[in-house]
Design a protein that fits this description.
By secondary structure, the chain is an alpha/beta fold. About 45% of the residues lie in helices and about 15% in strands. Strand 20 and strand 21 form a beta hairpin. The longest helix is centred in the last third of the chain and has 23 residues. The protein is globular, with a radius of gyration of 29 Å. The chain starts with 10 loop residues before the first helix and ends in a 19-residue tail after the last helix. It is an enzyme of class 5 (isomerase). Pfam families: UvrD-helicase, UvrD_C.
């Protein structure tokens, strides 16, 4: 008789399921059946050990993953068991707070803020402080808030009415932060960061509550453990201290959320935090062909923060991985479209078997246009089609209003940005337009003296349309869009809104128009352009369960698998992201490499990498293939499309130069010489700000010196060191007292400090940002 819980498990999965006691770490590579092992273990503990399911906490990161696990567990043990503790971190915290938040005098019906709610608060704050995105963007502020909430005693201010301590280094952000907290307090509102922090605060402050929940949680399982932040890991570690049954499963090679605060070191260093840890490595891949795995294994070996493993598979060899290099964006995406058609013809495949991945959403534009040109149906996953995004439709509506004067465009733009033209204005205008058989725009022009219509906002709008019509006759379409943005107030509106993604998408639209003008070698006819764009905006939106090619970012693809995968825009500065590297240097390089690894390991049968030549408007440089291409042995893939010796040499030189700049030239304690301030000592290395703090002896001051400064040279420490023993003791004490996310002495930070590494590795990243549940 077969055992439904243990059947079809390989030896490593079986070991993970049956190892139920103590601290257990499972390194589960891509496609290795992680969810199967996790859910079978939950079912085994309930059905074979007799543990009540309400005493098992199993946390993951998305509602989708939690629902899938619940479904699988119920299939194994039936519907009679309580599986409500198979949940997300935030789901657990909400359940905990509904029961315990009265301990801090908050009502149990507290409000939970989502991302849009946060932006609504920030709009109010920006208005009150009379600031806009020229001063700060929403993204910057939300990152600052998230960082402050993980490193400062903000809970004292919110819960215990302690005074607010501003961050003097960033006073404007601190002002926004304080007002944001005030609005939260007034409405008893918690954002996603608060859910974790409030839970930890109550547990830390109430020994009886802590004891109650520790006693309840006999077994704790953590899915995708590589994505746990300081506060998340602290929560599960704290809850597991009584029964000491903590099971972590994940893959450090798939950590792609460090910028949101994920710390892969918790999984990598788990066996050093808890010396009795049992480690199981699940490296049998059931998803991909050996040819695809060779590429993935080869790339990820270059990372340092990982547990060494090679994924293996018993699948057939399969076809070779392909790299295509195009002469321009158009050639790259048209090749992808033609290859999709070839797959459909030769592989008996469906459109829905094919997925196109990219690093950033704005890269979808070229791909969408190529697919439409070739009549290939597609759906954007986790994003909005480029030409359906609000800011793009705003600009296109103004263009259409200028040349066509249609009612749809008029209705969208006559009071956007706000001109004080309300409901009564529109009712009167619509009545007159119908009575006189005119368009709304023409009716307004003819009846501007009407009592209900004669308003300053209406006159201003008519003047604006008139001016833009004149500009349209004299300017190229790309220049006209810039003029529209400026004169209409849209550009200022988007800046005040603080949502910089809108501005990035507008830049991409203008770039596409400039390229179109260049390709045509003549001005673009606006009417023809709008007619062509109409094809891109009037597509069927019902994409559920339809046979369409899927487009998505690599981040969204994590945890999914597809028979055929194209990675487009495989260009230096895009993947790896130039912005990420600038902000986080070496840490970013490792994460970008993990993104590449995630993209590769989504593919089951075929994997393609594509890039093209041209100009990158984001980096302001000519385009070269990604440095990661040159980390793959050429024997592991086939190249299609001509990569000229000049491009190849320039790309390899760029990759080599970038690699050399990844490492910091100096470490803490090194002696250096500065051309102006002479000799100094590196007091600390700040990987977040990409700078050294150097104490210069002659001036007896510390200065922040950027990693990129070329004239800092190493010198011997043989000369007499002006620093006194007292100075050294003070420095030692300062380093020793670096804030620790744990109260005991068994934290990963302590372990790393003993090994002589920077304690900042467990400090909160400057780019940390919340991981939103689905």
């Amino acid at each position: 008789m077969t055992d439904p819980i243990l059947e079809n498990l390989n030896p490593k999965q079986l070991q993970a399921v049956k190892t139920t006691e103590g601290y257990v770490r499972v390194i589960a590579g891509a496609g290795s059946g992680k969810t199967k092992a996790l859910t079978s273990r939950f079912a085994y503990i309930v059905d074979r050990l007799g543990i009540n399911s309400s005493n098992i906490l199993c946390v993951t990161f998305t509602n989708k993953a939690a629902q899938e696990m619940k479904k699988r567990v119920k299939a194994l043990i039936g519907d009679l068991y309580d599986v409500s503790f198979i949940t997300t971190y935030h789901g657990f915290c909400v359940r905990f707070l509904r029961e315990e938040i009265n301990k801090i005098h908050y009502p149990k019906n507290f409000i939970i803020l989502d991302a849009e709610d946060q932006k609504t608060i920030l709009r109010d704050v920006f208005t009150e402080l009379d600031i806009n995105s020229k001063n700060l963007t929403f993204k910057q502020v939300l990152r600052f808030i998230s960082k402050q909430k993980s490193t400062s005693d903000y809970l004292g201010y919110m819960i215990e009415n302690k005074s607010f301590t501003p961050d003097e280094k960033d006073s404007l952000s601190s002002q926004v932060y304080q007002k944001y907290l005030d609005k939260q307090k007034r409405n008893y509102a918690l954002d996603f960061d608060d859910l974790i922090h409030f839970t930890a605060f109550i547990l830390d402050s109430n020994p009886d509550v802590l004891a109650k929940w520790q006693e309840m949680m006999h077994y704790i399982q953590v899915d995708e453990a590589q994505d746990s932040s300081d506060s998340q890991f602290h929560l599960v570690e704290m809850l597991s201290r009584v029964h000491q049954n903590l099971f972590l499963v994940g893959d450090p090679d798939q950590t792609i959320y460090e910028w949101r605060g994920a710390k892969p070191e918790y999984l990598v260093e788990f066996d050093r935090m808890f010396p009795d840890t049992k480690t199981i490595i699940m490296n049998q891949n059931y998803r991909s062909t050996p040819n695809i795995l060779k590429v993935g294994n080869h790339i990820i070996k270059n990372n340092k923060v990982r547990v060494d493993k090679d994924m293996v598979t018993e699948n057939p060899e399969g076809v070779e991985v392909v790299h295509f290099h195009g002469k321009n964006d158009f050639e790259e995406t048209i090749w992808v479209a033609s290859e999709i058609k070839e797959i459909l013809k030769t592989e008996n495949a469906s459109y829905s078997d094919i997925t196109i991945l990219y690093r950033s959403n704005h890269l979808s534009r070229n791909i969408e246009q190529a697919l439409i040109k070739e009549n290939i149906p597609y759906a954007i996953f986790g994003g909005v089609r480029f030409f359906e995004r609000k800011e793009i439709k705003d600009v296109l509506s103004f263009l259409r209003l200028i040349v066509q004067g249609d009612n749809f465009s008029f209705l969208r733009m006559f009071n956007h940005p706000s001109r004080g033209l309300g409901k009564k204005f529109l009712e009167r205008l619509s009545f007159l337009a119908a009575e006189q058989n005119l368009s709304l725009l023409d009716a307004l022009q003819r009846n501007i003296e009407d009592k209900e219509l004669n308003k300053k906002g209406a006159s201003d709008f008519l003047f604006l349309v008139s001016e833009l019509k004149k500009e349209a006759a004299q300017n190229s379409i790309s220049d006209l869009v810039k003029i529209i943005l400026d004169k209409s107030g849209l550009s200022e509106l988007y800046r005040k809104d603080g949502d910089e993604d809108r501005l990035e998408n507008i830049k991409e639209l203008v770039s596409s128009m400039m390229l179109l003008e260049k390709e045509n070698n003549a001005p673009v006819n606006i009417v023809e352009y709008l007619q062509e764009i109409a094809l891109y905006t009037d597509l069927d939106k019902d994409t559920e369960n339809q046979d369409k090619v899927r487009l998505m970012t690599i981040h969204i693809s994590k945890g999914l698998e597809f028979p055929y995968v194209f990675l487009c825009g495989f260009t230096e500065g895009v993947l790896p992201s130039a912005l990420s590297i600038k902000e986080r240097r070496k840490r970013a390089i490792e994460e970008e490499r993990r993104l590449m690894y995630v993209a590769v390991t989504r593919a089951e049968k075929r994997f393609y990498m594509t890039d093209s030549e041209g100009f990158n408007f984001t980096t302001g440089l000519n385009k070269y293939p990604s440095r990661f291409l040159f980390e793959i042995k050429e024997e592991f893939y086939v190249r299609k499309g001509k990569l000229s010796p000049e491009i190849l040499q320039a790309a390899q030189s760029s990759a080599a130069a970038s690699k050399n700049s990844e490492d910091t030239a100096f470490k803490q304690g090194d002696f250096v010489m500065h051309p102006v301030w002479n000799k100094g000592r590196i007091e600390s290395v700040d990987l977040e700000k990409n700078q050294y703090i150097v104490h210069f002896f002659e001036m007896d001051k510390e200065k922040p010196i950027d990693f990129a400064f070329r004239f800092l040279t190493a010198v011997s420490d043989a000369q007499e060191d002006p620093a006194s023993p007292a100075d050294l003791l003070e420095l030692h004490d300062s380093l020793k007292n670096t804030p620790d996310p744990f109260e005991d002495n068994d934290s990963p930070q302590d372990i790393l400090d003993k090994e002589g590494n920077s304690s900042r590795i467990f400090g909160q990243s400057a780019d940390s940002e919340k991981k939103w549940p689905e």
